[in-house]
Amino acid sequence: MSWILIVEQSLNGLQFGLMLFLLAAGLTLVFGIMDMINLAHGSLYMLGAFLAATLVQATGSFAAGVLLAIPATALLGMLLEMSVLRTLYARDHLSQVLATFALILILNEAVRIIWGPDMPLSVPAALSGPVQLLPGMVYPAYRLLIIGVGAAVAGALYLLVARTRIGMLVRAGASNREMALAMGVNIRRLFTLLFGVGAGLCAVAGALLGPLFAVQVGMGENILILAFVVIVIGGIGSIRGALVGSLLVGVVDTIGRAFLPLLFGIFFQPRVASAAGPAIASVLVYLLMAVVLYIKPQGLFPARG
Amino acid sequence: MGRAAPWIVLALALTFPLAMQAEHQTYYLSFASRIFIYALAATSLNLILGYGGMISFGHAAFVGTGAYVSSILLSEGVASAWIGWPAAVAASSLAALVIGAVSLRTRGVYFIMITLAFAQMVFFLVNSMKAYGGDEGLSLRERASLGLGVDLGSDFAFYYAALAALAAGLYGLHRLAHSRFGRVIQAIRENEERAEAIGFPVYRCKLVCFVIAGAAGGLAGALLASHGKYVNPNVLHWTQSGTLMMMVIMGGAGRLWGGVIGAAALLGLEDLIANHRVDWLAAIFPNYQQHASLGVGTVLLAIVLFAPQGIAGMLARKKHA
Amino acid sequence: MLELKNLSKRFGGVVATDDVTLEVKRGEVHALIGPNGAGKTTLIGQISGSLGSDAGAILFEGLDITHAAQHARVRSGLARSYQITSMFKRFTVLDNLALAVQARSGSSFSFWRPVSAEAPLFDEARTIAGEIGLAGREAVVVAALAHGEQRALEVGLALATRPRLVLLDEPMAGMGPEESENMIALLERIRARITVLLVEHDMDAVFRLADRVSVLVSGRVIASGAPAAIRAHPEVRKAYLGEDAKA
């Protein structure tokens, strides 16, 4: 185990964490403001990736394809909000869970009908090589791009929510729903817009992660649960909590998978280590969540007092 | 349902295999057994979700634990159902005790999320059990054996075993719902704070309820593994928990027959779309039969939006009108 | 019978109850009055066990119950009612009362025998329904009751646990004069066998019923004594009754 490996895995963790933040940010705001559980958030991530794959093919340019996929997904998200999700705000959590679960089924099949089970999307040729970061240490250029874009988008979002007037309204809504509702008609439009932004962020994550994982039906399902883990750890409705939670989950998951089996190898017999290491590593983030909830039942940064 | 209805349903279920023509028998007996097993699993979830008001999004963990424990025993040469099934029930109860003890300290959304997270933990643990197939699953050479001259390998005998398990589960739920404990559980669903304030140990009652549901879920899992002679981690995936929840809500949460109606409706709908081609529909939409979940999702969405009481609720309302 | 020793509760930075020391004697009706936000409901929560305490101790019949679970306190004879009606709304009056009777008598971990076979539960529930003026209304679903009837049942649920001390949180909230009279009559009937800690804004009722009165202002007990003494207490007049007289 060398320091190069540690740096490399930390960067991987950072990269995954930033992408998780893009998903969790929209989820936590929707959750915080309207007290709405939206399982279909993962479907927007999938839609974003499929749209990006199609548009990259059509335009022949990775950048153009991804940039076009973002507003397209945002538009779909807003349509979804106006047609179905809006009617669920006043319903109980159980109805929200089931209705959005139904949306997952519907959107999965819709994608399968339109695109088939998967779509090719590969790393653009210019970024497919490695970059020398430090003497003796190379890192894939594409992953660096993800970190850069992720950090930029996360930073912009943070400023938007923390510093602007719209952001102030959003935060006010997340910490006090009655106040948000009292603001009346505007809140509906603001919320549709917010939903569009959330969907756009899903598209960024889906398009960028597409080449690393795979663009396929159901790709949103496991990452959705991780995004939920993030916002529960961070505190529902808190954008700061989502950021800290994302990085925590991203790093713990990546580092755990890379080093836990090695660590177990030091203390246990190889046979035990090779069985238990990966098993424990794969549940590490859920253990983290259980521990956080046990100590702080409202998450690390509770948005409501 | 009226007093006679359960007995009529039971009589129909008992005579159904005898009425089948030989050529269709295997398929329909196997299909009906699957419905019974899912009905048992959904009924066990109905106990906590519909009667107890606990929105558990991790019920697949208990069904899956039962399925895996019984399958692992079978693959290790323990063929007797008298050992395998109780072991599955015991393991699922234990899992429910541990998961419930932690989860039931949280409320609302946090409870939904933490039960989901625990189920994912079990899912990933099973995925990493390379000795028992890992993510490829575990194939069984044969079903568990019941002895007593009954061969569960035959779909005929298995049908009656699944039916017996479901009937026992339903009767148990019926008794429980009207017992002292059942009334406490329903009171907690209505008003948890007041239930504690008139002297009920709310947390302990919820935990016991959770464990009972986990145990019944584990039995359903053991049956499910034997039925298909195969188990894989997908039985524990969170979408399975969602499917079970869907059955309970479609059928009618908090109603005795809710789980049964939901399981039959959902699996029946899937089967209807996938295996019974409607020509005019196929003319408009050529591959529609490969996209059954589009129909299932649409029906579920419609039920949640327009008929939140479920199918059993609609039937009951019609009777009162 | 009930002793509170230096009891405090904070919510974040806000002090709700502050160093409360109070004694409720067996057999008395002890009224707790004070302006809105004085911490009365918080104190009821702390005594009943739905809220924990940050400091201090609670003794019930000589036993320290500061850390006992709420349901355990109820079973030892200490019950409460709520300021905001809190019942099993979709159940009937009879089922609500029978549940409370069940909570007190026998184990609830009985999974098989139907409750309907247990006639004593329902007999006692009917008796209580009669006592609180709901005879003939037993089969009505709670949600369909009139406000005054719901308030009566609210108190009835606490009584059904057969407490030796009952904490009543504004039983007359939102009642008309006639309904208030009925409630006062009910409290007059039960005071012979049950000790009462009564939180109430209706001063007329307080001074008619109470043997002793304690005054809570900003989380602190500023006075405690016989009704006449409290009426005359200068600090109380300033902090509380003065405002009330003007209103």
Average predicted confidence as pLDDT of chain C: 90
Give the overall shape of chain B. Answer: globular
Query: How many structurally independent domains of chain C?
Result: 1
Binned strand content of chain C? 15-25%
Number of helices of chain B: 14
Oligomer: heterotrimer
Summarize the structure.
Chain A is mainly α and 305 residues long.
Q: What can you see in these coordinates?
A:
- The complex is a heterotrimer of chains A (305), B (321) and C (247).
- With 305 residues, chain A is mainly alpha-helical.
- Chain A has a single domain, classed as ABC transporter involved in vitamin B12 uptake, BtuC (Orthogonal Bundle).
- Chain A contains eleven helices and four strands, in the order ααααβββααααβααα.
- Chain A has helices at residues 3-34, 41-59, 62-83, 93-115, 141-163, 165-175, 177-182, 185-209, 219-234, 239-267, 270-295, and strands spanning 118-119, 130-134, 137-140, 215-216.
- In chain A, helix 1 packs antiparallel against helix 8 and helix 2 crosses helix 9.
- The mean pLDDT of chain A is 86.
- With 321 residues, chain B is mostly helical.
- Chain B has a domain at 27-236.
- Helix content of chain B is 74%, strand content 1%.
- Chain B has a two-stranded antiparallel sheet with strand order 1-2.
- Chain B is globular, with a radius of gyration of 20 Å.
- Chain C is 38% helix and 24% strand.
- The chains are: A mainly alpha (305), B mainly alpha (321), C alpha/beta (247).
- The B-C interface holds B 175-176, 178-184, 187, 190-191, 193-202, 205, 208, 212 and C 48, 50, 69-72, 74-75, 79-80, 82, 86-91, 95, 99-100, 102-104, 106-116, 118, 157-158, 160-161.
